[in-house]
Amino acid sequence: MAKLTEKQEAVRRFIECELKAGRPCPTHREIAAHFGFSGPHGAARHLEALVRKGVLIAERGKARALRLAETFPGLRRPVPAEIPLFGSIPAGFGEDTEQEPDGCVLVDVSTIGFKPTRNTFALRVVGDSMTGKFICAGDIVILEHGPEPRSGDIVAALIDRKTTLKTFVQKGGRQYLKAENPRYPNLIPSEELVIQGIYKGLIRKA
């Protein structure tokens, strides 16, 4: 079976989500609107390719009657993983914040680009000091506890007993935290700097 392009796989997933939610197969116009295509013809081309590759099955004589094939030989299936969510982390000035369990986030392993371990955790971002790294308030950052940070890594850190999300910088024997928004100063520890996790990925809700 021919391999799907990235966009074809995205269209297939969109259709799968709609069908699993109990809604009818989306129309060409709905698919075009969802993906920002210039018109329904772009959606039609992707659907034709998915039918041709055996991923979708079209039932003749029925409107909106595309359905997913039961099995897709050679097609990569999403591999879900649960990552514990430990509340929020300030991306601004450090705060006295205790990280408490707050459920889990379910992710597709291929989407985040790595396989989570028992040391992987997630935090919800509050504040805008990391916008220069395209991390915004409301995003969920995925981090890994344990690895030694390298200069330039984004980290969740405890600095003088206050938690924050910043870029870790090491120059010579000095370590400090760098904001990625000029409105915020760098943070230089006066007592301690403990790295709680290294940034691995990001989840953003539309």
Q: What brief labels describe this structure?
A:
eight-stranded mixed beta sheet; alpha+beta; two-stranded antiparallel sheet
What does this structure look like?
This protein has 206 residues and is an alpha+beta fold. Helix content is 19%, strand content 32%. It is built from 4 helices and 10 strands. It has an 8-stranded mixed β-sheet. Strand 8 and strand 9 form a beta hairpin. Helix 1 packs across helix 3 and helix 2 packs across helix 3 (40-52). The protein is elongated. Mean pLDDT is 83; it is low at 71-75.
Summarize the structure.
With 206 residues, the protein is an alpha+beta fold.
Instruction: Measure the end-to-end span.
Output: 33 Å
**What is the H/E order?**
HHHEEEEHEEEEEE
Oligomer: single chain
Largest sheet: 8 strands, mixed
Strand percent estimate: 25-35%
- Low-confidence regions: 71-75
- Give the fraction of residues assigned to helices: 10-25%
Mean pLDDT: 83
Helix-and-strand structural type: alpha+beta
Evaluate the radius of gyration.
22 Å
Biggest sheet, strands in spatial order?
A: 4-3-5-6-10-7-8-9
For the secondary structure, the number of strands is: 10
